[in-house]
Design goal:
Layout lengths: L1 H18 L6 E14 L12 E5 L3 E13 L2 E18 L8 E22 L2 E25 L2 E8 L11 E13 L3 E10 L14 E12 L1
Antiparallel strand pairs: 1-3, 1-10, 2-4, 3-4, 4-5, 5-6, 6-7, 6-8, 8-9, 9-10
Length: 223
């Protein structure tokens, strides 16, 4: 299944490149802030046995590059890559009296999107919107747990392990959408949203049905 997805993903990029009109390819760089969260089932539990109370955004960052491949008037395919911070802040209900717990989960992915981008030109610049799939590979991750007992709090930090037999899967597949405005000098401002199509966890309890959801905002420049 994963091999088929990868083949389709890269074949679409190659096909778009072959269809490209004789316009100069534009390479862009981008960077900004991510506002990620991990959505899980309410049945997910903490290590102390407590259920999830609520999850919140864990602000991070991203940077990357894009290649613009024209396929028609004001229409292009835009593959690229980004190193993107994801994760969540979560608090748990505890079955132990007076001992709430929480966690900060940080995940770093190498993400490969391939968006179909439509441009609406104006005199002073252009507005653009895009939509497409992404494939992501988890580079690293950490989980920092805080356990409280009466007025004493203890913290435990551990590296997250990825793989078919670990808590988190190495690969993430999903979709993303973006919108922005490019000024006449090549600088653009943009925002986007991406979401996992499948669960990123292998665990049947601690991270039950976990999926990435990321909002982002940043700046870019066409070289």
């Amino acid at each position: 299944m994963k091999r088929t997805v990868f083949l389709l993903f890269f074949f679409s990029i190659i096909s778009a490149s072959a269809m490209a009109q004789r316009e100069p390819l534009k390479i862009g760089v981008k960077a900004g802030v991510t506002f990620p969260n991990i959505h899980t089932s309410n049945d997910a539990i903490a290590y102390d046995g407590g259920g999830i109370k609520e999850s919140d955004i864990n602000t991070s960052f991203y940077f990357g590059a894009t290649v613009n491949l024209p396929v028609g008037k004001n229409l292009s395919v835009q593959p690229g890559f980004s190193v993107s911070g994801k994760g969540t802040k979560v608090s748990y209900y505890s079955y132990l009296p007076n001992s709430p717990s929480s966690a900060i989960i940080n995940l770093t992915y190498l993400e490969l999107p391939a968006n179909l981008v439509l441009v609406f030109p104006f005199k002073a610049g252009s507005f653009f919107v895009g939509l497409g799939p992404y494939v992501a590979y988890a580079l690293s991750g950490t989980a920092k747990y805080t356990f409280s007992n009466t007025n004493i709090a203890t913290q435990t930090k551990q590296a997250i392990e990825f793989g078919s037999t670990k808590n988190f899967k190495r690969f993430d597949l999903g979709g993303n959408a973006l919108a922005g405005y490019t000024f006449g000098n090549g600088i653009n401002i943009h925002s986007g949203i991406s979401a996992s199509a499948f669960k990123i966890s292998n665990s049947s309890d601690t991270y039950l049905d976990a999926r990435n959801l990321v909002f982002s905002a940043g700046l870019g420049y066409a070289l």
